[in-house]
């Protein structure tokens, strides 16, 4: 398949008025281009053309765009010709791999040929009268920034990948980056805001994963492939549900009279930025699963039968003896739980059950029981019947 720019016009199928800030995605974007937001936004004012373009193996795309554009490789491998320069690009994981991004000035020619079964690009466009050279941002150029490290008991640690901003691309009207939000943790936290509109596009480590995204006082349950539009001056903290890593691509639009130069925290939450801030913690925190079934159930003999006791012949060595200093109970793991196992009791080979043992012991000699030093003495108790205090894991 060979596609040209006329085959994918931004905003062609978008509603003219959309008060809701969330755009729900599908389980998987179809082949071709899917427009999600438009530059002329009824809520944001000056927004961003944003959408997802999917190519199949050997599909080709050729275009010369009148707008500035950024192409973020989401998955797959492709051969790209950019301003006459041919390169090969690949991405296997949004969570483990830093991005490859094609950044094009207006009127830059681009050609892409897919080399894997599915190649997916996130594409952002904005009007820009300035001309500048195209550039490929490679994964090794993206320096991860672990924000939230040492703050709020580690609950807002995340990986922020800034691709480019005004310092790197002063001619651009965009600021672009990614966040890897760890499972059960927060990002864009403490809550912050800025004077420029922004969009977040989400992916999850499992398609049924989810999180919550704030846009001012509104809170949206965000899912795989959703896109959230954030208006100027809206706080926009994010959180991922436990068990699901959350990725989002973020794109800020510079305003002509107010370029993006950073964000401002919500004042009432800035105290959290102090690593020594006093934050309540529970007195005790359980670690690991509880020990279940501390003793296996006894095996009862069938009705009408008698339990037979094994009797060792005189002078025979006991079948099993614990070495000196070994614990008399062991813990055996079965599946996700652990239970205590009582080692078999051993009868004395020199003293019949019920008989008294010698109470006179010469210095340095072993007690007269017919058991070698370090061996266990008879308890006269059937295995599994006695409970030794101090050896139960729950004691």
Q: How are the elements arranged and paired?
A:
Layout lengths: L1 E3 L17 E2 L8 E6 L2 E2 L3 E2 L2 E8 L3 E6 L2 E15 L2 E7 L9 E4 L3 E7 L3 E9 L8 E3 L6 E4 L10 E7 L9 E8 L4 E2 L4 E2 L4 E7 L5 E6 L2 E6 L3 E4 L7 E3 L5 E8 L10 E2 L64 E5 L2 E5 L54
Residue fraction in strands: 35-45%
Task: Give unreliable regions as ranges.
Answer: 4-19, 326-395
Shape: globular
| Overall mean pLDDT | 80
Alpha-carbon Rg, integer: 34 Å
Give the number of helices: 0
What structural category do the secondary elements indicate?
A: mainly beta
Element order: H for helix, E for strand: EEEEEEEEEEEEEEEEEEEEEEEEEEE
Distance between the termini: 71 Å
Helix content: under 10%
The total of beta strands comes to 27
Main beta sheet, described? 10 strands, mixed
Report a brief summary of the structure.
The protein has 395 residues and is mainly beta. Helices cover 0% and strands 36% of the residues. A hairpin with a 2-residue loop joins strand 20 (210-215) and strand 21.
């Amino acid at each position: 398949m060979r596609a040209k720019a006329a085959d994918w016009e931004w905003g062609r199928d978008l509603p003219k008025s959309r008060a809701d800030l969330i755009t729900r995605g599908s389980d998987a974007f179809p082949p071709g281009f899917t427009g999600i937001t438009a530059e002329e936004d009824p809520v944001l004012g000056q927004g961003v053309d944003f959408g997802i373009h999917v190519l199949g193996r050997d599909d080709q795309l050729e275009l010369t765009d009148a707008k500035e554009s950024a192409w973020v490789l989401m998955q797959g491998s492709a051969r790209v010709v950019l301003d006459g320069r041919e390169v090969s690009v690949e991405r296997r994981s949004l969570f483990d791999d830093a991005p490859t991004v094609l950044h094009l000035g207006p009127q830059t020619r681009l050609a892409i040929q897919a080399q894997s079964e599915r190649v997916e690009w996130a594409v952002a466009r904005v009007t820009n009268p300035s001309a500048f050279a195209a550039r490929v941002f490679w994964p090794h150029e993206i320096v991860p920034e672990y924000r939230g490290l040492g703050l709020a008991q580690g609950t807002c640690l995340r990986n922020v990948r800034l691709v480019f901003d005004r310092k790197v691309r002063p001619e651009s009207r965009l600021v672009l980056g990614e966040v890897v939000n760890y499972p059960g943790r927060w990002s864009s936290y403490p809550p912050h805001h800025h004077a420029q509109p922004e969009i977040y596009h989400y992916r999850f480590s499992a398609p049924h994963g989810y999180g919550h995204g704030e846009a001012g006082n509104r809170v949206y349950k965000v899912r795989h492939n959703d896109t959230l539009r954030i208006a100027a001056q809206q706080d926009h903290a994010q959180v991922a549900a436990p068990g699901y890593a959350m990725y989002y691509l973020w794109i800020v639009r510079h305003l002509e009279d107010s370029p993006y130069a950073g964000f401002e925290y919500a004042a009432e939450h800035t105290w959290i930025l102090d690593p020594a801030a006093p934050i309540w913690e529970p007195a005790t925190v359980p670690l690991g699963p509880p020990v279940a079934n501390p003793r296996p159930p006894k095996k009862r003999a069938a009705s009408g039968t008698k339990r037979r006791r094994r009797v060792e012949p005189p002078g025979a060595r006991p079948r099993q003896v614990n070495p000196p200093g070994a614990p008399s109970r062991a813990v055996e793991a079965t599946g996700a739980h652990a239970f205590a196992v009582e080692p078999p009791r051993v009868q004395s080979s020199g003293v019949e059950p019920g008989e008294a043992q010698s109470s006179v012991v010469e210095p340095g000699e072993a007690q007269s029981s017919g058991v070698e030093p370090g061996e266990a003495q008879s308890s006269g108790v059937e295995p599994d019947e006695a409970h030794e205090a101090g050896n139960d894991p729950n004691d």
